[in-house]
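Sample entry (330 residues):
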Amino acid sequence: MRQFTETAVLSGIVREALGAGADVVGVDRLRGGSKKGVYRVHVRGSRVASVIVYSWAEGENFWPAAAEGVDAVHPFAPASGLVPFLAAQRRLDRIGVRVPGLVLADDSRRRCPADVAVVEDVAGPTLEAFLRTDPARASDALGELAAMLDVMYQQRSRHYGRVDVLERGDKASGDSCEQVVFERALEDLAEAAERDPRIGSAAAPLRDRLQELAARVAPRREYRLIHGELGPDHVLVDAHGHPVLIDIEGLMFFDAEWEHVFLQLRFGERYPALSRPGLDPARLDLFMLAMRLSLVAGPLRILDGDFPHRSLMQGIADHNAKEALALLTR
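Predicted structure, serialized as tokens:
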């Protein structure tokens, strides 16, 4: 049976972060995380009423165990753990992009058999919820998010890859972003074809389409800083209505078009507020089909395990399978 991080362990970590006088009075395991546990810990006797604890314990990761030989420096390798989190937190904080404040980072394994971080509890909803409940104020937050993305895209690098990989002087796999995306898309297509009969029956034309789109992409040698998985559920809105980025472990230098196809999918009719001029149409076309295939293969893969929100993942896979097939006729 899956074991989550125990309350006693969380209490010890929070007291270490906030001081011995902090008394833990409640713990809520928050929904949504698939690679780490996210806990809201309520306290009294402290300067704050609650904090968030991230736990990268093995039992918190719902994804199937990675096969041996996984390339850890691949841009799309699983981005999970304290090291990529801290690298991303430092980079974003340095350039003035709002993320939850760091209270404590601990990789000692003294109190918990996993890496943990204690961060500020941003007292507000996700942008996704805010867009539903208060669309007028949410539009202001959306505008601020667009400004945040502009700040991030002003950060440029001659090398692509996750920020933690580049910080330690390693080189990401592959020769170009478009090659990495194309090769990953072929892998996702093969996996999705085995799991979804609709994709399986169209595997050959989908492969041909990927090759056609990849051939249209011209070389590029400068990359922008992107979140990597920026949906409205990965943006919190604080008490003053300002956006705050979360789930930042995948922060990387890459083609901005990869971010923008995901923004298009997740923000839908709200995407024009985030759109920016100068995006490469050829990259957008290739990346959109690649993203659709990824969002078929990935959700079906996690369903091999005991992920609890099964209908959600199946729905994501079904929707993106239909959209991937629709791209064959556009």
